Amino acid sequence: ACGGDDSGTPSGSGASGDNSAAGKVGIILPDTKSSQRWGTDDPKFLKAAFDAAGVQVEIQNAQGDKTQFQTIADGMISSGVSVLMIVNLDSGTGKAVLEKAKKAGIATIDYDRLTLSGGADYYVSFDNVKVGQLQGEGLVKCLEDKKYQKPVVAELNGSPTDNNATLFAQGYDSVLDPKYADGTFQKGPNQDVPDWDNAQAGTIFEQMLTSNKNIKGVLAANDGLGNAAISVLKKNKLNGQVPVTGQDATVQGLQNILAGDQCMTVYKAIKKEADAASELAIALAKKQKPTTATGTTKDPESGKDVPSVLLDPQSITKENVKDVIADGFVTKDAVCTADFAKACTEAGIS
Amino acid sequence: MTTTTTTTAGGVKVVKPTVASYINDYWARVRGGDLGTLPAILGLIVLSLIFGIARDTFFSGLNFANLFNQSAQVVFIAMGLIFVLLLGEIDLSAGFASGVCGAVVAILLTNHGWDWYTAIPVALVTGIVIGFVLGFLVAKLGIPSFVVTLAAFLAFQGVLLVLLGGGTNISTRNEFFNALNNNNLSVTWSWLLAILAVVGYAAVQFNQMRSRAKRGLVTDPLGIVLLRIGGLAVLLLVATAILCQERAINPAINSLKGVPIVVPIIGFFLVLWTFVLGRTSYGRHVYAVGGNTEAARRAGIPVDRIRISVFVIGSFMAAIGGIMAVSRASSVDPNTGGSNILLYSVGAAVIGGTSLFGGKGKVINAVIGGAVIAVIDNGMTLMGFNSGTKFIVTGLILLVAASVDALARRRAAATGNR
Amino acid sequence: MTTTTTTTAGGVKVVKPTVASYINDYWARVRGGDLGTLPAILGLIVLSLIFGIARDTFFSGLNFANLFNQSAQVVFIAMGLIFVLLLGEIDLSAGFASGVCGAVVAILLTNHGWDWYTAIPVALVTGIVIGFVLGFLVAKLGIPSFVVTLAAFLAFQGVLLVLLGGGTNISTRNEFFNALNNNNLSVTWSWLLAILAVVGYAAVQFNQMRSRAKRGLVTDPLGIVLLRIGGLAVLLLVATAILCQERAINPAINSLKGVPIVVPIIGFFLVLWTFVLGRTSYGRHVYAVGGNTEAARRAGIPVDRIRISVFVIGSFMAAIGGIMAVSRASSVDPNTGGSNILLYSVGAAVIGGTSLFGGKGKVINAVIGGAVIAVIDNGMTLMGFNSGTKFIVTGLILLVAASVDALARRRAAATGNR
Amino acid sequence: MAATPLLELSGINKGFGPVQVLHDVGLSVYPGEVTALVGDNGAGKSTLVKCISGIYQIDSGTVTFEGNQVAIHSPSDASGLGIEVVYQDLALCDNLDVVQNMFLGREKKRGIVLDEPTMEQMAGDALASLSVRTLKSLRQLVASLSGGQRQTVAIAKAVLWNSKIVILDEPTAALGVAQTAQVLELVRRLADNGLGVVLISHNMNDVFAVSDRIAALYLGRMAAQVKTTDVTHSQVVELITGGRSGNIGLPPEKPAADFGGDVVDITPGGDK
Amino acid sequence: MAATPLLELSGINKGFGPVQVLHDVGLSVYPGEVTALVGDNGAGKSTLVKCISGIYQIDSGTVTFEGNQVAIHSPSDASGLGIEVVYQDLALCDNLDVVQNMFLGREKKRGIVLDEPTMEQMAGDALASLSVRTLKSLRQLVASLSGGQRQTVAIAKAVLWNSKIVILDEPTAALGVAQTAQVLELVRRLADNGLGVVLISHNMNDVFAVSDRIAALYLGRMAAQVKTTDVTHSQVVELITGGRSGNIGLPPEKPAADFGGDVVDITPGGDK
Ligand SMILES: Nc1ncnc2c1ncn2[C@@H]1O[C@H](COP(=O)(O)OP(=O)(O)OP(=O)(O)O)[C@@H](O)[C@H]1O
Ligand SMILES: Nc1ncnc2c1ncn2[C@@H]1O[C@H](COP(=O)(O)OP(=O)(O)OP(=O)(O)O)[C@@H](O)[C@H]1O
Ligand SMILES: O[C@@H]1[C@@H](O)[C@H](O)OC[C@H]1O
Ligand SMILES: [Mg+2]
Ligand SMILES: [Mg+2]
Hints:
- The complex is a heteropentamer, with one copy of chain A (350 residues), two copies of chain B (418 residues) and two copies of chain D (272 residues).
- In chain A, 42% of the residues lie in helices and 17% in strands.
- By secondary structure, chain A is an alpha/beta fold.
- In chain A, the strands form three sheets. A seven-stranded mixed β-sheet of chain A has the order 2-1-3-4-5-11-10, sandwiched between helices. Chain A has a three-stranded parallel β-sheet with strand order 7-6-8, sandwiched between helices.
- In chain B, helix 2 packs antiparallel against helix 16, helix 8 runs antiparallel to helix 9 and helix 10 (262-279) packs across helix 11 (281-291).
- The relative contact order of chain B is 0.20.
- Chain D folds into two domains: 1-82 and 164-252, 3-Layer(aba) Sandwich (Rossmann fold), CATH 3.40.50.300; 92-162, no CATH class.
- Chain D has helices at residues 45-52, 75-81, 98-102, 116-128, 147-159, 177-192, 204-210, 233-242, 253-262, and strands at 7-16, 19-29, 34-39, 60-65, 68-70, 83-86, 109-110, 113-114, 165-169, 196-200, 213-218, 221-227, 244-245, 248-249.
- In chain D, strand 7 (109-110) and strand 8 form a beta hairpin.
- Mean pLDDT of chain D is 84; it is low at 254-272.
- The chains are: A alpha/beta (350), B mainly alpha (418), D alpha/beta (272).
- Chains in contact: A-B, A-C, B-C, B-D, B-E, C-D, C-E, D-E.
- The interface between D and E is large, with 56 and 56 residues.
- The complex binds adenosine-5'-triphosphate (2 copies), beta-D-xylopyranose (XYP) and magnesium ion (MG) (2 copies).
- One adenosine-5'-triphosphate sits between chains E (16, 19, 21, 39, 41-47, 88) and D (134, 136, 144-149, 174, 176).
- Chains D, E: Residues 7-244 form the ABC transporter domain.
- Chains D, E: This is D-xylose transport system ATP-binding protein.
- Chains D, E: Pfam families: ABC_tran.
- Chains D, E: It comes from Paractinoplanes abujensis.
């Protein structure tokens, strides 16, 4: 229903009575530190989708501050949005915000992160446990390729305060634990990185390496953490020999893959996620019943089924870096700088 | 100037001020740079106007009410910090202390099924114990408070993580508790409390006048006293009137009016601590130790005990701040009390006019400074800038608010007043 | 005590100390509580022993070398902060200022393809400009530095985000640049520099002795001077020897030895700023303004200019810190200079013995305090606790390190010395 | 008069790190008498006072108060015994006003509430009795007072209380002619009321005008304690500047012997 | 002597907020002469000095130096003109040592490096000339100095330089007998070398011993400026305490008329 014909600009007053009836949509993103996506990709794709539909949107970022998060929600509610879409910082504040919105008669969407017991009307995301699984499988593959005997694997987990980090760990541990158990791999040091802080990740990994010189593989929860580990490996001239994982398909991560320093990253097609979410929101803003949320997600806390759009994350290695570029997520110019021109050609990026 | 001359018991000639001479003197003091909280209030008005012009929702009743809930945590923590700052000390751990106390209350309510009237006291006691330990380390071992509270800042972050079992968050579902920093008083109660406040203030003012007059001491002119009482009355009653309007987005679904419950709580502590600082010998001693520790010691003031006590008050108020934060979010997570909470709280105190070097400050500073910070935060989120720009503009606006203050005070330096 | 009495030009009798009387006096001073950096060094040793016992890798050459790279950012920022703190001011924005300057260098290197010798100067100039603006606002407008730099703390976070296009990480791939805080000097250069440092120190000491003796002023006994030089020599040469051992994880693949490049850079700035503070009139004026601003003003010292200058030095050193952080991570992200960097840097200065109230502190404090913080961080991550525990234990260990200091200094209070 | 001393110090030693300031000092303060403590700049007078009032801890020596040996560890111990001190470095809180400073640590209260009117009135009376005429307001911060006004506040503060001993360290140094006269009169009046008064002063006229006894410190040693009527103006000056005068004062060899040890090392370590 | 004044003030007004401290004050300082500035506590002497030295900005009035009207906005302006001041509130940096304080703002250097040996030697000489005998070390922090030692350091600091006018605000207040004599001698010597000297003191003996002229401030007004030889001890005391003496001083009606306006409001606003 809300497909192709909405792509015009909302210029004339009566041009699309459809649009003028549409309320405003408010979107709250969590921070700019856990991943670059919240500062760059998501706002860009979301904005584009709403602009295309001619629906008013306000996107704000809570800068990792849950007080801010609530304040932004208050502001959006009092400025009269008709749909509120959030990426929670934690389920608690997320829930408080969702409840306040519902009391004011506003439709709600959980974007990327499910608010436990939040009771949002819809949920759009990638399967985060799946992300972790892909990371685990990627690492296993790279280590097998290197033919290491009983390699020691270090784990650099995400922020202890980020629920997604917990889900990622669930995913990769579900792959790695059996390997530890059967003795193919050896469990090495395992630490959380507060705030996903890359600098701290560097020190943490350096110390892991100092105390356990046999580390042969690093499960880093995202590209930033991965790059921190790679810097330390480089310093010890071990880069390339110790596979490192990542997530988010950042330019940095893709380049590290092309350079052979990083084993894989997980590409979450953020544009698709953003499009799916905006489609839902636009329908709600126009007081229509969305039809795209075909799946459901069971809220593990409340036990309720939330109507959902769940997208599949994709594992990226040197072979399919080109897919990310083809998808328009990153540009060739950004990835294939002078240093990487050769590697790009080798990887079939033209 | 026409003045009446009376005589005090000391046999020294004194001049009884008239309303005119009083205002003249006040004006001369202001011109001479003795400004009190005036510049911060000025800054607040300027900010509000800017935001009000930029976004009309800023002046809506709903937004006005939200401001109180939004600022509560920072205001409570800042009130406690005023005591710590008055001694020239710092408490970097106040933010996470509020988180820890908030976690305690949430755990007791949710995981252990306690009721609010048992859970809240335990959280407050936790705050007191924390403050005692910090104060003890500073006063008795002589470790600089920056270091002690930096260590506590780290440790409490860990305690919070451990309490929350490594990163989950805990929701509170206790109706009363969640209402504290979310719901409103009934309209009747709102008016009742406002009127009570005005009457109480008037009583105190008149009583004071009477007791000075009885001793033959100079009193403020009656006109000025009436002006003060009238001023407060207008302020409180107008605010109450606004807050008692319907402000629900969708009044059909649920009605929203009345003064937020947190307002009288803020008012209570404002009056309490203002009384303690201004009217008790304990408060006097806090100022003395902050102004000149050696002089205080020579005057026989138990400096160490005072030092410990301010940390206790600081952490106690942090506990209340934490309770309010948890109530507002109906949940606690490992970042409760983290982020910018601490810097904002110290900033609130400083912007309100409290000195980091001790000896200068009032509890009202926390409220006014907290309001400045909350207005900036609130207004900025209404503007809807993107992340980077928002940080930058917030910083700049904070600077503008502070410059109003600084420029006003520059005259002070020029005329030799401090 | 056997002492020789000589006479100065002023006609006042003076006592020329012998080695024995010098040591006696020193000991009396220490017993009297005049401890300098002694307690911090003591704390450092205690910490190292604890970690060394808990994890044997702590004392490995590799870990020793890592310590320098890990602490570099905090040490550089802390060195600059010492100047700011000496004036009783604070710079909350130093962390993110270092991030901004780091981003500038990374953008120029990576996005614009500049070379390090053009990119680094631009980053340094950025630091200087930042410091100038901060200092100007504090000195000329009279806004408290806490507020100015809190505003800057927010604004620079935004600038960093904007520079990084909303939050992308930028990798640096310039060999030389990345080597700065990752690679090591060759063994030859390592020894050369160590020997140079010892010889230089000896020259300065002897020169000073000579110039005092020439004027008939009392000089330190030759034995003491030799002892000092010898002490430094042993320290530097032993450290160099350790760092020139092979420490590669896999020596077969690649060799890893030599003093980390960042060490002579730290050394350079340590000497430079120690010289500036101790031997130039500018440094003298910094102490004077920090000790008693009014007295400094009366002595004709341009207080405002001094105030601006310390912020310039502060942000300049923050820029260097940022460069080192980016070099170490070979990458910059929106959190570079964020998290605990600022608190750790101020903490380093304070733990080293610098006062937050101004007038007291030395550049070496930054290095020693930075070492304490780095050792704690380094040791704690070696231990591999989980997050919550790690925070708690880090806090406690910091407290232990500070207590050693505080307890040692308590005698000072007892004997009436400050 | 002068039966048993109210306060008796003996063998007091006090040093700061390597610097020994007081050597074996003894001093007796009698009730009803003014004891003038004199000595050159840096002789150790203020240090001695601070040892008595508990600001400094003595290294060794005994303090006897009303016949009992006491240990004074803090200023509140001293005021507990009834010892009031006006310090040379006045130690007022610049951020408090005149009334607040005068009652610091001993505020008047009604219930738990400060009784400001009473304090204001008492402060006004006390200051008026000390000839303070230029004070603009009792609610003025002491930061804005003139040197003499500060001094008067400090003196008024110390004599407001019922104490047994009042020690005044150069109380008239900053005072005008009239105010000085008032303070000297006050000092005499206190002694006449039976208190023990210790007056430190460099002004020999004042010393001879009000004191009953004179104690002279010389380079940290008690050179002599004599009745004022037994000595002349110039003898006291000799005691101050040389440590002895005729047959009173330190034995002639004493100062010389100790000289090499710890005095006048005017340029020791230098700067490193 | 006394052809044209070196420094001439006229019509100086200075207030702090609602408090008017100086009213229309005039003062002339002549080269080669010691001008004693006297007045009761709180009369405004120190305030006047701080107006001259640029610590306070005057509200109105003119300052003429060597015949030219000047505006002094800061202490460095004043020292640029050659005006040195010893303040009553001494303003030393407690965290610096004696030598460092004495050369503060005017350090001796070789190249850019501080010339410590030279400064130490010069400081030692200057202090020795002021009879300082108890100082333990020139490298002692001034925080640990006795009251008199601090005062001496401040005086020595001000007279180290080649200046045209030296103003001393109660320089001998804390000094011992010998040190006071030295300072008075120094004051006389400075004047004899052609400098203009302003000496503030409450000690009439000292005033009459060294001064050539006396200027008396009364409640912020200049009551009289007279030659020392033209007045008696008791006349000066009358000027100080009453603002007039016989036919010199303020006109009799003047003080009364202005009295109601701004004086002795000893308990105005009270505490709110
Ligand atoms: N904290 C300290 N550390 C080192 N030396 C000190 C300290 N306090 C005082 N002194 C020294 O002790 C000596 C005695 O000082 P004190 O203040 O007692 O002298 P005083 O007799 O009161 O002199 P004045 O008449 O100048 O006030 C002085 O030489 C002083 O420099
Ligand atoms: N900053 C200020 N604010 C308000 N009043 C002030 C300030 N500074 C000084 N005064 C008042 O001005 C008057 C004059 O002070 P000033 O210090 O000049 O006196 P003085 O003549 O030097 O006295 P003294 O002999 O005691 O040193 C005093 O009454 C004082 O209280
Ligand atoms: O994409 C990831 C996001 O889902 C998580 O919440 O924060 C870290 C990011 O890398
Ligand atoms: Mg003394
Ligand atoms: Mg004066």
